[in-house]
Design goal:
Layout (H helix, E strand, L loop, with lengths): L3 E6 L3 H13 L2 E6 L2 H11 L3 E5 L7 H10 L8 E5 L4 H10 L3 E4 L4 H15 L7 E4 L2 E4 L4 E4 L2 E3 L3 H12 L4 E3 H9 L8 H13 L11 E4 L3 E4 L5
Parallel strand pairs: 1-2, 1-3, 3-4, 4-5
Antiparallel strand pairs: 6-7, 7-8, 8-9, 10-12, 11-12
Helix pairs in contact: 2-3, 6-7, 6-8
Main location: cytoplasm
Organism: Mangrovimicrobium sediminis
GO biological process, one term: regulation of DNA-templated transcription
Length: 233
């Protein structure tokens, strides 16, 4: 019985066929779309667990669909991996800034992509590492996977939540980008270290709430990486 469902959004039939075969062998249920309009409908109707989204699509770009997914409450936490032939750093950063959880550049090995999918799904549905953490009025509820300042919820994506949960569980220690990748993304996951910087930036933005600015909790440690500290806040 397939364990999870994956929506492939790509206008190249050969790419979809290759991905479908690899994913079905890996015991995933596979959905397919070749344009953003059909993809959006399938996401609402079928509620896939993860989306593989091509950058260039007929009728609009994958970035356009990604923006819409991250803007709407019902889909904003849906994990998305961008499939792209674009290798320029500004294109990669644009996708991550809009809300993509990861990206992979064509051509790629199906085994690598499946490893990334499994790692991303593990992050989106963590195991028993739960509990309630609080720092200076900022509350993280691991059971409901929600963040609060007082009674007000704080919106953030699943990767930012996992980063914050790790930081709040390990305060006052500096971590390199590589260490954060291992702890939060998972060991042996193929993710560029600069991905950490993008998610740190998004986490800081989410922590700038109307009630208080908690972005200063995430400190940059020059020459090392990042640290979570409430000292001096």
């Amino acid at each position: 019985m397939p364990e999870r469902s994956v929506l492939i959004v790509d206008d190249e039939t050969a790419i979809r066929d290759m991905l479908r075969m690899a994913l079905e062998i890996a015991d995933f249920n596979v959905l397919e779309s070749d344009n953003i309009q059909d993809a959006y409908t399938r996401i609402l109707d079928n509620k896939p667990d993860i989306v593989l989204l091509d950058w260039m699509l007929p009728g609009g770009s994958g970035i356009e669909l990604l923006r819409r997914l991250k803007r709407e409450e019902s889909t904003q936490e849906l994990p998305v991996i961008m499939l792209t032939a674009k290798t320029a750093e500004d294109n990669v950063i644009q996708g991550l800034d809009v809300g993509a959880d990861d990206y992979i550049t064509k051509p790629f090995a199906p085994r690598e992509l499946i490893a990334r999918i499994r790692a991303l799904l593990r992050r989106a549905t963590p195991g028993q590492d739960q509990g309630r953490l609080e720092v200076n009025g900022l509350v993280l509820d691991g059971e409901s996977r929600r963040i609060f300042v007082g009674d007000d919820p704080v919106d953030m994506g699943p990767t930012e939540f996992n980063l914050l949960q790790f930081f709040m569980s390990h305060p006052e220690r500096a971590y390199t980008r590589g260490q954060l990748l291992d702890h939060v993304w998972g060991a042996n996951v193929y993710v560029e270290e600069r991905t950490v910087d993008v998610h740190i930036r998004r986490l800081r933005k989410a922590l700038q709430t109307d009630m208080a600015d908690y972005s200063g909790l995430i400190q940059t440690v020059r020459g090392t990486g990042y640290r979570f500290s409430s000292r001096g806040l």
